[in-house]
Write a structure and sequence with these properties.
This protein has 158 residues and is of the alpha+beta class. The protein contains 3 helices and 8 strands; from the N terminus they run ααββββββββα. Strands 1, 2, 3, 4, 5, 6, 7 and 8 form an 8-stranded antiparallel sheet that branches. It is globular and about 35 Å long.
């Protein structure tokens, strides 16, 4: 009985930590101070959105993280939130990105950015989990900026 109670309380605490992290990331999206500390000038930002992402560098399992997507005229950034600071998971100049793909599964969409030996797979969050329209808008923006289109890989992450 004690073991079951301990396991249940552990699961509840883990769920609370995840929700808190998601909430903290949502607050960080519009925090100019955090963005400046991360090296991005707020006045140069075209879009800031909350996202979920996975970065794949090898054939290892990708690790999923909540993130802040930041788009400027010349680059794309994915930041995780660690100890109250935005930490770069991917910063890619548009002119050096190898390609971009849009992966669809059911009603959800995922942008896949290919840069060197990395693949960043992400989607934009909205009110009801994944915002497919916003995710597709990022993909179309990248294509419109001259990033080459690629064939998508199987859905990456969760």
């Amino acid at each position: 009985m004690r073991t079951a109670a301990f396991l249940l309380s552990s699961l509840l605490l883990a769920g609370a930590a995840t929700a808190s992290s998601f909430y903290e990331v949502s607050k960080a999206v519009n925090d100019d101070e955090k963005l400046i500390f991360a090296g991005v000038e707020p006045e140069k930002v075209l879009a800031r959105k909350q996202c979920g992402a996975s970065i794949l560098e090898t054939d290892d399992r990708p690790e999923f993280f909540d993130c802040v997507y930041v788009q400027t005229e010349k680059d794309l950034n994915l930041f995780s939130l660690e100890d109250g600071y935005l930490m770069s998971e991917m910063q890619a100049k548009l002119n050096v990105i190898d390609g971009v793909a849009l992966q669809r599964t059911g009603r959800w969409a995922q942008v896949q950015v290919f840069s060197n030996n990395k693949i960043a797979a992400f989607y934009i969050y909205g009110d009801n989990w994944i915002d497919t329209k916003e995710t597709e808008a990022v993909y179309h923006w990248l294509i419109g900026q001259g990033v080459p289109q690629r064939t998508p890989r199987k859905w990456i992450g969760r």
